[in-house]
């Protein structure tokens, strides 16, 4: 999933090929990002129900639309941990996602205490030393098609603008990127793995599960961020935590109460317009 030179959004990962660090470096390209649509738009919430009997369904559709549209990645957390049992409840809700043949691919590992300390130290050390490994699965195409590149740049720009980090502030971007490897200091640090034998369909299933997790967290008033940056160091992660080599490292997830005052949490991204991704053929 890696790409990009040192910047902090997944959309701006460290370059796999250090010789071309600017290739994915958000903000280092000339093309201006397109102006995507706002996330809450016409048609995203249920229309007003014509019958009173539909009112409850309509309200719950609107609640769902609000939940989906208000969720956003959280990259700074308050130190207080969520109550005991929270993570178990969230991953159980996430597991309710559909999957092909109900295979339910993917596992969540809560990495806590000494194990988390070991993991974060190893990751930060590796990152600082410039170490690189082959990832378990590919995420970003090389080269990135221009249309996607523009979205990537826009996402990175949203992040760095919120932080007040300038385009050419390599140190500032590095510092933010490094925070991926500490799970943004969230009280809860999850690692997401998948059976190495499974293919693209299972990653699709797992993606649904992940969205379920992020929505379940948002529904409970928690902030969360998926961390694909962890997929940069799969072997190191397996070694440090003593994981089975037959489990691929997919990503991490940081979870906890959002620090609403942190500038990074003002990052907001937009989505492309309906015309960009939806067609009717007759
Ligand atoms: C699978 C996945 C991996 C991600 N990896 C990272 C990451 O490594 N670092 C990061 O800061 N954000 C990461 N993100 C967050 C995305 O940048 C974010 O979802 C996207 O920009 C849209 O913004 P939003 O989540 O606020 O709607 C990841 C998101 C997903 C779904």
Task: Provide a descriptive summary of the structure in words.
The structure is a single chain. The two termini are 37 Å apart. The chain is globular and about 65 Å long. It contains 8 helices and 4 strands. Strands 1-2-4-3 form a 4-stranded antiparallel sheet, sandwiched between helices. It has helices at residues 55-70, 86-94, 113-129, 146-163, 170-180, 200-219, 234-241, 274-277, and strands at residues 107-110, 188-195, 223-227, 247-256. The chain is an alpha+beta fold and 282 residues long. The chain has a domain at 76-265: NADH Oxidase (3-Layer(aba) Sandwich), CATH 3.40.109.10. Bound molecules: flavin mononucleotide.
Strand proportion:
5-15%
CATH class of the domain at 76-265: Alpha Beta
Bound molecules: flavin mononucleotide
Oligomer: single chain
> Average pLDDT across residues?
87
Strand runs, count: 4
Instruction: Spell out the helices and strands N to C.
Output: HHEHHHEHEHEH
Level of helix content? 25-40%
- What count of helical segments does DSSP give? 8
Q: Class by helix and strand content?
A: alpha+beta
Q: Might you state the CATH topology name of the domain at 76-265?
A: NADH Oxidase
Question: pLDDT below 50 for ≥5 consecutive residues: which ranges?
Answer: 1-36
Radius of gyration: 19 Å
Q: Tell me the CATH superfamily of the domain at 76-265.
A: NADH Oxidase
The dominant shape is globular
The CATH architecture of the domain at 76-265 would be 3-Layer(aba) Sandwich
Task: Please give a handful of descriptors for the protein shown.
disordered N terminus, alpha+beta, 8 helices, NADH Oxidase, 4-stranded antiparallel beta sheet, binds flavin mononucleotide, 282 residues, globular
